[in-house]
Amino acid sequence: xxxxxxxxxxxxxxxxxxxxxxxxxxxxxxxxxxxxxxxxxxxxxxxxxxxxxxxxxxxxxxxxxxxxxxxxxxxxxxxxxxxxxxxxxxxxxxxxxxxxxxxxxxxxxxxxxxxxxxxxxxxxxxxxxxxxxxxxxxxxxxxxxxxxxxxxxxxxxxxxxxxxxxxxxxxxxxxxxxxxxxxxxxxxxxxxxxxxxxxxxxxxxxxxxxxxxxxxxxxxxxxxxxxxxxxxxxxxxxxxxxxxxxxxxxxxxxxxxxxxxxxxxxxxxxxxxxxxxxxxxxxxxxxxxxxxxxxxxxxxxxxxxxxxxxxxxxxxxxxxxxxxxxxxxxxxxxxxxxxxxxxxxxxxxxxxxxxxxxxxxxxxxxxxxxxxxxxxxxxxxxxxxxxxxxxxxxxxxxxxxxxxxxxxxxxxxxxxxxxxxxxxxxxxxxxxxx
Length: 434
Known about the structure:
The structure is a single chain. The protein is α/β, with parallel strands linked by helices and 434 residues long. The strands form two sheets. Strands 1-2-3-7-4-8-9-10-12-11 form a ten-stranded mixed β-sheet, sandwiched between helices. The protein has a two-stranded antiparallel ribbon with strand order 5-6. Helices cover 26% and strands 18% of the residues.
């Protein structure tokens, strides 16, 4: 493998941890020469040692086994979809963004009860495109109003992380929050390419702090409510957020202006982890996109570079099931790794993206995970990355597995979106994902 990554300046390590300005742990490894040796589990070998010989064995035995292992050891077991989930369109503007789009806001009642947990979905539909249109779906960090300065988007009233530069005051959004993350969403670019965009504030599903579950879905669905005592394999926040993405997909399936067979689920950072887990579980997502998701997402945990399990479970243990904590400093004992998470998406297209200065997320570890998922794609008759070495910055590669490492920081940029849209064009518009 190429060693160009090693030469990046250690100054680049100043990128944020999981999107927050925390000091990085002193034991973090950023030198390739210090990465301990590791051996990856084979995604095509069952736990009992039997080799997976064909697509039927993968689909009927190995894939369910890997899903169960992620349930039990990493993300926790998700609740089943609620039969009484309900939707209500709360606003429609057919002349949004100067006539470019139709904007819809939809209340999703996650347990079917008006006084129960609710998430609000924002949907932009391109007016110039013939319907139904393909769509991108993703969770956002600061409320639906953060994706665009559009004054017609309802300002979220939910709890938010205290980030003043995003217009959050006393854990609540203000008008200064409007459009604060617009550069990460590139709404006009998406619409101009003929795609719809659907997004939900992840805090609607569960607020992102240790006791946030008491205000979110987990308490609402538990018979014990806020007095719940979690079992080792009970779901963590990533599983809860992923569950919410599937409920958004439930709505898109009944939205006549959207082609629900061509929905790409996407996410950045912790929400990139969430998109991968949602796509692994829910095969209705036709494309899965991970942007800078790092450890717990697309990066190999056995490759102890950047964030490691012991960092994750000390800083944000509530993102995962409690069982995951036992693998701190013992990554080799974990029965799965990121390449197996990516492999769960096969044969559907998947895209993994990194950034040169985001060493905490381990770009090489993300590339290697995508590379080691390739045998499963090949078994199912799909071409994978098509390269052996990590590409230079800003040179996308891949077929049914896409990858690029972009020059710059831990972020989502117009460059990233251009690659995702081109990837979706290839698979959606030319029938290659069928």
